[in-house]
């Protein structure tokens, strides 16, 4: 997709997927349909050609640990079924909303899981450097990633020259949620440029509405939605190269370009005329949970909410998420034309803490085209694997997200706070955003985050 058409389709959220289908979602590779894993590794009625490389793992067990909890854990565990059936191994899964705090404790206590699904590359780096407990990824897993993912996904999982973390899920953060029917009723059009976005916000104010609603609340992780706003604008005002310098600390956190990004975000989030639709004043952003922040769109007290593709799970039963439904999303427009159509995203990475053959096999499987296509067919999930067919995804938002991620013309960058050292990205930056939205100046906040760098 060329950049000009990308801007049009992302802004208008056209969902006619034109990407060629390059892999059948769950079929075998080039083996016979009747082939199964060797030995007594099970197989049943499944096509197990994909599992031949893993051998017979009957009687073995792999423990897996992540942040994914009920009800999202059910489709995740379902995506492990074929591996279990075709190899004979058993995968024992545990999800926790205290994952980031508990994983280091378990490592220090000598009882880490075999596999952890880690949502921040910065946390992965800290685990490698502080505890020397992470096992390098198998060569076969690296080969899978090199064949089917953008090269940046190798970089995100590499620490001090060694490759540890293979890509798991992905998400697109550069979305603005809205009500298609409300827009149509008011005569509003989806903005294609940043100037259009601000003009639309001003028009909503002139019509007596509050255009934006936001919430930074997320328990111990309160503040992270605010970091997404700053990262989005850094990509749009400073560009991808400066963005890379920023998260690597090749420029200081209080660089003038970072200050400009904060202040540009402030033109929306610190504007009493723009926020916080249906929820309170500007300060209410700090205490409103992110899960609830977009819901005023449903009753018309808010018009727009910036949040990632995974937010679709928060709308509740009976709400249709589609271009002609109750809610949908459009691409957050660019600002400087020279920086194109940047896309902010995030994701999780699989890391191993044991070298047993079944653990190495499971990490390799989770990096494979087969698993990513299989997982796409189970629930709310997006992969950065470029071989997964767009129509493998059930959700229109996930289809759009995958289309954007697979677009080789897109300027994709991973969430910067997740790439920064943990004490910066998931502590100082998060808390700094809360301080900022409740009254601290931009300079005070960027100086305090800069001081937190190790």
UniProtKB/TrEMBL annotation:
Keywords: Signal, Transport. Residues 1-24 form the signal peptide. Belongs to the bacterial solute-binding protein 1 family. This is Carbohydrate ABC transporter substrate-binding protein. It comes from Jiangella asiatica. The lineage of its organism: Bacteria, Bacillati, Actinomycetota, Actinomycetes, Jiangellales.
């Amino acid at each position: 997709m060329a950049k000009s058409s990308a801007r049009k389709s992302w802004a208008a959220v056209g969902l006619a997927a034109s990407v060629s289908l390059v892999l059948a979602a769950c079929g075998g590779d080039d083996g016979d349909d009747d082939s199964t894993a060797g030995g007594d590794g099970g197989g049943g009625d499944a096509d197990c050609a994909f599992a031949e490389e893993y051998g017979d793992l009957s009687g073995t067990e792999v423990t897996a640990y992540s942040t994914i909890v009920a009800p999202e854990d059910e489709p995740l565990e379902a995506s492990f079924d074929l591996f279990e059936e075709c190899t004979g191994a058993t995968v024992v899964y545990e999800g926790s909303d205290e994952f980031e705090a508990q994983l280091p404790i378990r490592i220090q206590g000598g009882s880490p899981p075999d596999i952890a699904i880690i949502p921040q590359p910065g946390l992965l780096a800290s685990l490698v450097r502080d505890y020397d407990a992470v096992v390098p990824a198998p060569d076969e897993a690296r080969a899978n990633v090199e064949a089917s993912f953008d090269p940046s996904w190798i970089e995100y999982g590499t620490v001090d020259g060694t490759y540890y973390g293979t890509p798991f899920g992905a998400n697109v953060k550069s979305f603005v949620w809205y009500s298609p029917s409300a827009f149509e009723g008011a005569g509003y059009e989806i903005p294609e440029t940043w100037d259009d976005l601000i003009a639309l916000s001003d028009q909503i104010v002139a019509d007596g509405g509050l255009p934006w609603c936001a919430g930074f609340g997320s328990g111990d992780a309160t503040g992270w939605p605010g970091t997404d706003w700053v990262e989005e604008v850094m990509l749009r005002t400073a560009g991808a190269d400066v963005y890379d310098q920023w998260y690597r600390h090749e420029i200081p956190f209080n660089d003038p370009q970072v200050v400009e990004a904060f202040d540009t975000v402030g033109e929306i989030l610190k504007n009493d005329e723009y926020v916080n639709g249906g929820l309170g004043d500007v300060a209410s952003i700090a205490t409103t949970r992110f899960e609830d922040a977009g819901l005023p769109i449903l009753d018309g007290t808010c018009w727009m909410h910036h949040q990632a593709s995974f937010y679709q799970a928060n709308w509740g039963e009976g709400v249709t998420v589609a271009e002609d439904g109750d809610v949908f999303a459009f691409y957050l427009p660019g600002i400087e034309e020279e920086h194109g159509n940047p896309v902010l995203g995030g994701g999780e990475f699989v890391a191993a803490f044991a070298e047993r053959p079944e653990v190495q096999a499971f990490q390799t499987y989770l990096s494979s085209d087969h698993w990513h296509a299989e997982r796409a067919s189970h629930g709310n999930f997006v992969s950065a694997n470029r071989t997964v067919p767009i129509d493998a995804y059930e959700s229109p938002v996930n289809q759009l997200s995958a289309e954007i991620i697979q677009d080789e013309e897109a300027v994709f960058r991973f969430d910067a706070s997740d790439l920064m050292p943990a004490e910066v990205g998931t502590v100082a930056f998060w808390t700094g955003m809360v301080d900022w939205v409740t009254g601290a100046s931009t300079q005070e906040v960027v100086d305090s985050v800069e001081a937190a760098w190790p």
